[in-house]
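Thread amino acids onto this structure.
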């Protein structure tokens, strides 16, 4: 039984759910911090992989404006137009 519990985390469905949840949380945090974000910005965040989303989640609380987000994305090889 423990073997099944450990292996479900390796499934594609589990990983996709984890990524979707992380993206959703980052989008909610950005909406909260900046009142709202554009649909284009939302789509760009939704295209990030889990590692990028987790890195963004760690730094976004320090952002003062959406320009800070763009600076972060430029440093990570992607430009966001807020």
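Threaded sequence (82 positions):
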């Amino acid at each position: 039984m423990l073997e099944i519990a450990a292996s479900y985390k390796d499934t594609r469905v589990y990983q996709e759910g984890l990524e979707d949840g992380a993206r959703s949380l980052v989008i909610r945090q950005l909406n909260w911090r900046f009142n709202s974000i554009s649909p284009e910005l939302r789509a760009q965040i939704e295209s990030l992989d889990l590692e990028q989303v987790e890195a963004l989640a760690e730094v976004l609380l320090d952002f003062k404006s959406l320009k800070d987000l763009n600076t972060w994305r430029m440093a990570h090889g992607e430009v966001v137009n807020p």
